[in-house]
């Protein structure tokens, strides 16, 4: 936006469009001659037809270690003014990769300073990046999965300027993209500076990110234990947690979401994962994740799991979950099934004093006391 000396506002209007180009059979594209191109389907933005063009072996022989990516103007969907000659479009663009582990886009390079538009015409139909990324880095950083690479293109086509009189309008700040950039670091071996080893499985990570999200990791990586980590070439052994659970914990640390559990279709498997993830979050002091898991478990309390869930809530100081379990016990009409569960038997043996307090609380909550004699009779057996 520019304000002239005559207090007129020149507003540059744009139309935005996005297109994801999935390069299936990525492996088959390797080994082609430089200049070999793979083009996306045509998509329309701002009245113009566009395509993303991918060069798996670079444009020239000098660029064979790199992949090249360009945005290409195909033609005008509606000829402006009906005149002769090819279409001319002015646009901003961003070509970026989609990381399959997070589904988040990651900008690899920006055109010039990130704010300069380009004029696409018959003379210059394509703009992009001759050396978009080294092919080896692209593969090592995990952007290729199941023999497929996904490139996203964001195009903002500049429309004719609109001139109005009056004060300049207020400008909206662009939305934050820091979470997207953090998510793009997940599993990025090229920038990782620590390796976390969980039962033989290795996870590439970043000390600063771990320390920012977990006081326990901060103490381990920057406290007195740092020398031990450095002596082991940046490798840290993680005990007491399964790789799948740690993967979900790491995913939350980088993305602030629990999307890593979305692939679990079985409700029992998901409940077990949530319980283990809560334990891991408590161990590494990732408080927000612990609270999220606690609320999830509050919604999935069942007869056969309430006792085990209550014991875990007491062990990890989850007050909301503890109260929800007690409320469930106090109002349940299936007390026999609860008392026959393995979790109840373990809780009686491991936490006898807690059981006394528990039944006192439940006794105060019950509206009907008809089941109390049976409960105490069973506990005396």
UniProtKB/TrEMBL annotation:
Residues 192-262 form the BTB domain. Residues 16-155 form the MATH domain. It holds the Pfam family BTB. SUPFAM superfamilies: POZ domain, TRAF domain-like. Pathway: Protein modification; protein ubiquitination. It comes from the Eukaryota. One of its GO terms (biological process) is protein ubiquitination. InterPro entries: BACK_BPM_SPOP, BPM1-6, BTB/POZ_dom, MATH/TRAF_dom, SKP1/BTB/POZ_sf, TRAF-like. PANTHER family: BTB/POZ AND MATH DOMAIN-CONTAINING PROTEIN 1, OS08G0128700 PROTEIN. Belongs to the Tdpoz family. This is BTB domain-containing protein. It comes from Oryza glaberrima. The gene is LOC127781996.
């Amino acid at each position: 936006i520019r304000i002239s000396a005559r207090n007129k506002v020149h507003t540059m209007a744009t139309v935005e469009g996005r297109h994801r180009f999935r390069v299936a059979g990525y492996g088959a594209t390797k080994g082609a001659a430089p200049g070999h191109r793979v083009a996306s389907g045509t998509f329309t933005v701002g009245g113009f037809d566009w395509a993303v063009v991918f060069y798996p072996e670079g444009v020239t022989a000098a660029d064979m270690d790199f992949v090249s990516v360009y945005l290409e103007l195909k033609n005008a969907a509606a000829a402006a003014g009906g005149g002769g000659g090819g279409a001319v479009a002015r646009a901003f663009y961003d070509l970026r990769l989609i990381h399959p582990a997070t589904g988040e886009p990651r900008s690899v390079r920006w055109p010039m300073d990130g704010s300069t538009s380009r004029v696409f015409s018959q003379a210059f139909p394509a703009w992009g990046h001759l050396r978009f990324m080294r092919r080896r880095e692209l593969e090592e950083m995990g952007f290729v999965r199941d023999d497929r690479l996904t490139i996203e293109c964001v195009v903002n086509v500049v429309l004719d300027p609109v001139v109005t009189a009056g004060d300049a309008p207020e400008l909206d700040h662009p939305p934050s993209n820091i979470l997207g950039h953090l998510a793009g670091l997940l599993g990025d071996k090229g920038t990782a500076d620590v390796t976390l080893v969980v039962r033989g499985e290795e996870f590439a990570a970043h000390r600063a990110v771990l320390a920012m999200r977990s006081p326990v990791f901060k103490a381990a990586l920057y406290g007195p234990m740092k020398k031990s980590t450095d002596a082991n070439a940046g490798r840290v052994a993680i005990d007491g947690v399964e790789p799948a659970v740690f993967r979900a914990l790491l995913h939350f640390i980088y993305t602030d979401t629990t999307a890593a559990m979305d692939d679990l279709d079985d409700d029992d498997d998901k409940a077990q994962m949530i319980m283990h993830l809560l334990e891991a979050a408590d161990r590494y002091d990732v408080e927000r994740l612990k609270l999220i898991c606690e609320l999830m478990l509050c919604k999935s309390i069942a007869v056969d799991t309430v006792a085990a869930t209550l014991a875990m809530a007491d062990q990890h100081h989850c007050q909301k979950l503890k109260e929800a379990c007690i409320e469930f016990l106090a109002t349940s009409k299936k007390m026999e099934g609860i008392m026959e569960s393995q979790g109840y038997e373990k809780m009686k043996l491991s936490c006898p004093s807690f059981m006394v307090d528990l039944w006192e609380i439940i006794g105060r909550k019950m509206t009907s006391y008809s089941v109390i004699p049976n409960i105490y009779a069973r506990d005396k057996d």
